[in-house]
Specification:
mainly alpha; about 0% strand; about 220 residues
Length: about 220
């Protein structure tokens, strides 16, 4: 027992419980209210989703400090793209009631639920080969799908961002006059595609590494 072990176990347990609540709430509302539940997705689960995604920034420090053994680059790309897109959804209120936000949050939630149970078992030194295989086999295609949904979300947010030009103040009026926020968002799309490509490549390498390490452990036993 150590403080680090207790901390990483508590963190993964909190994330697991948070995303389980989000999934249960989303499914229950969808079964109860049907399509009407899609419009209230952000208002019903937005706070918990924002809290979970904000706390996920800590994972970058976990990897850097050696508490968690994982590749920093793909985790950095995933954490930052989620948080930046979430900030966009929070700032553009018109997009919050779109069905695409429900799909986006649902995919994010499934991706995290594929990871945190495995991390919980690893923190207890009881890894599962079935969960390891499921995590990496399903996570990569779901991640690619989620990136596509993120692109659609940005595209649907563009008209609302164009309709609300940025306010300028006396100090930066010259700079802000040359800043066109839709153009900045469009420039984010190739960056998002490049980051996703690098992340998928790194995840494939991490999958092979984890499976090789598991096979070595089984041979020793």
């Amino acid at each position: 027992f150590s403080f680090r072990l207790a901390y990483i176990f508590s963190y993964n347990l909190f994330q697991f419980c948070g995303h389980t609540w989000i999934l249960a709430n989303s499914i229950a509302r969808l079964l109860t209210f049907g399509r009407d539940a899609l419009a209230d997705t952000f208002y019903s689960i937005g706070f918990v989703m924002s809290l979970c995604q904000l706390l996920s920034i800590l994972e970058l420090f976990h990897i850097a400090d050696g508490i968690e053994k994982a590749r920093l680059l793909p985790r950095f790309v995933q954490v930052m793209e989620k948080n930046l897109l979430l900030i966009m959804v929070i700032m553009v209120e018109e997009i919050q009631s779109k069905p695409i936000v429900f799909v986006l949050f649902f995919l994010w939630n499934i991706l995290d639920l594929l990871r945190y149970p495995h991390e919980l078992l690893c923190s207890m030194d009881k890894p599962s080969i079935a969960m390891l295989w499921t995590r990496y086999t399903l996570r990569i295609p779901l991640y690619i799908l989620s990136v596509g949904i993120e692109v659609v979300t940005i595209y649907q947010a563009l008209p609302y961002i164009e309709a609300t030009p940025p306010k300028s103040c006396s100090l930066n009026s010259t700079v802000s006059a040359h800043i066109h926020r839709p153009v900045l968002l469009m420039l984010c799309l190739p960056v998002l595609a490049l980051g996703a490509s690098v992340t998928v490549w790194q995840l494939l390498k991490e999958k092979q590494h984890q499976l090789d390490r598991w096979n070595k452990k089984m041979k020793r036993k």
